[in-house]
C-alpha cells in the first residue's frame, strides 16, 4: 500500500512539473541571457519573425512568457523579443531596494539589451507597470526606439497627470522633501514654505480621492512581494514623451477605475498631443489576451501610420 501511495505521489509530481514546463515554454522561441549590469543578467526570449524588431515588456510580477501566445501573432510582420525584468522568473534578482528597481534602472536594462543584441530602433510594447519602462526609455533615450506602445499601461507611473496628480508619485515627492528637512534646513523664505505646502496639499487631495474611491471598491489585496514593492517605490514622474506613442486602454467597469482611465486619456491628449489613443470595451487588464485580435490590429494600423509619415 505504501509503495502504491509513493507511486501516486511520483506521478502527481511529474504531472505538476510537466504542467509548469508547459506553462513556461508553451511557444517556440530561443532564450538568451543578456548581461545588463555586473552580476545581473536578464532572460530574453526571441520568437523570431521577419521585419522591424519589436520588444514586449511584461507587467509587475510577470515574465516574458506571459506573451507566449500573443507574440506568435506578431511574428508575421515583426521580429519579436520579450524581456523578463530583473527580480522575476529566471532573470537575476538584486536586493529589493528602490535603486535596484527604479523606473530608470529598468529602462537602462532595456537599453542594454537593445545595444547587446544590436537592434535598430525597435518598437517597445509594454503591459501594465511596464509603461514606466517605456516612458523612461522614450524620455531619456528617444534615439534608441522608433515608437512606444502602452498596452493598458498608460497610467500615472507612465505619464504623471499634471492636472489630477497621483497619490504614489506625490507621496514620493513629499517624502523626498521631508527626508531632507531638519533643524538646519527648515524653510527660511515664505516661498519655500508655500512650495512645501503645495506638496502637502497635493497628497491631502490625493488621499481624500483615495478614501472616496475605497468606499466604492472592494478591499484591495496587499502587495507583499519585496521586489514588487521596490518597483512601485521606484516610480518617477514622466510628463512629456517625444517619440511616437500608441496608448491602448481597457475600459474598466468600475466607476473609480473608469474615471482614472479617462483622466489618463486626457493627460495623454494634453501632455503628449501626438499620441494615438484607443479604448477597448468589454476587455480586462490583460487586454492582449482578452482582446488579442483587436490589439494585434491596432498595433499594425499604428505602425503603418508611422511608416506613412516618414
Automatic annotation (TrEMBL):
Keyword Hydrolase set for record: yes
Gene3D superfamilies: alpha/beta hydrolase (3.40.50.1820)
All copies of domain AB hydrolase-1, residue ranges: 53-288
Keyword set, alphabetical order: Hydrolase, Signal
Signal peptide: 1-22
Pfam families: Abhydrolase_1
One MF annotation (Gene Ontology) recorded for this entry: hydrolase activity
PANTHER family: HYDROLASE, PUTATIVE (AFU_ORTHOLOGUE AFUA_2G14860)-RELATED (PTHR43798:SF33), MONOACYLGLYCEROL LIPASE (PTHR43798)
Identification of the protein by name: Alpha/beta fold hydrolase
